[in-house]
Amino acid sequence: MFDVGGFTSGLLTGLREGVEAALIVSIICAYLSRTGNGRHLGRIGVGATAAVAASAGLGLLIFATLGELQTTWEQIFEGTTLLVAASVVTWMLFWMRRQASSVADELKRALERALTAGSAWGLALLAFTAVIREGLETALFLVGQAAAATSSAGGTGAASVLAGAMVGLLIASGLGYGFYRGSRRLDLGRFFRWTGVLLILIAAGLLGSAVHEFVEIGWVTVGTQVAFNASAVLPQSSGVGLFLHALLGYQSAPEVVAFATWVTYLAVAITLYLRPLRPRAAAQPEPARVGGA
Is residue 153 included in any domain, yes or no? Predict the structure, then answer.
């Protein structure tokens, strides 16, 4: 059975992360074109492609090991993966929130250094570095989502997450090309702001699911009683409940500690994410040298 929730969560992840990577690569390519260095665009493609391949290979390797582990070790691995994925996504969201306003200028300065040094392949390394960070985060995040979807919808859950991610990445690639060609304009600030909120919701679900796994294997022994049971109204194994479980980590009968973790993370993360940024202090000019010193 096709898992709509898993597909949607995968699509959102692929689109959000893919747009970030596509935006970075498009900035590099647009800068090269405007400065008459279009001959180096092929090297950018090499670097970006290598990063995508490395990220996909790592994600498949991690996910493939799930089937080789015994039940307890599988739960440990899944719980740890979910926890790390939530941590990485949280860090990435706040880093991008802080850096988004200056990322273009920083990349341009890096490009100028690479061109000045005369190392054309340095551009490929720059593109690889820009994409690999997003790619690894995407792979890790999708592994956590696929693991959660598999536990609720079997093999179709993981396949749906992967299919959604592929569609999201294809859309992101199209948007990246649009950025490069200048054929359309997007309010990127608003786009990243609200997709960031949605990813915080997903990360909260991953964190709650990680705590649930640790409760089941006995690593967490406090607050293990059921907080509430909504199985009769909204079961997590079918319909809307299954969709919410795959997308947001919804549990129809969560443990107190898992539910408290979910609520606390959600409240703190969204509050911090939506608060206004303090303007960065302008760089102070260097004092003038006197007497040729």
Answer: yes
Residues 214 and 220 sit within 8 Å (Cβ to Cβ) = yes
What is the domain extent for residue 199?
A: 4-274
Closest to 194 (Cα-Cα) out of 97, 110, 278: 97
What is the number of domains present in the chain?
A: 1
Q: Is residue 282 part of a domain?
A: no
Q: Is residue 279 part of a domain?
A: no
pLDDT for 6-31, tens place per residue?
A: 788 788 878 877 876 787 788 778 77
Render pLDDT for 60-86 as a digit per residue (tens, 0 to 9). Answer: 787 776 555 556 776 787 788 778 878
In a domain, 32, yes or no: yes
DSSP state of 255: B
The phi and psi torsions of 82 (rounded to 5 degrees) equal: -60, -40
Determine the Cα–Cα distance for residues 175 and 188; give it in Å rounded to an integer.
Answer: 11
Q: Rounded distance, CA 259 to CA 254, Å?
A: 6
d(CA 44, CA 156): 35
Give 244's contacts (C-beta < 8 A, 6+ positions apart).
Answer: 5, 234, 236, 250
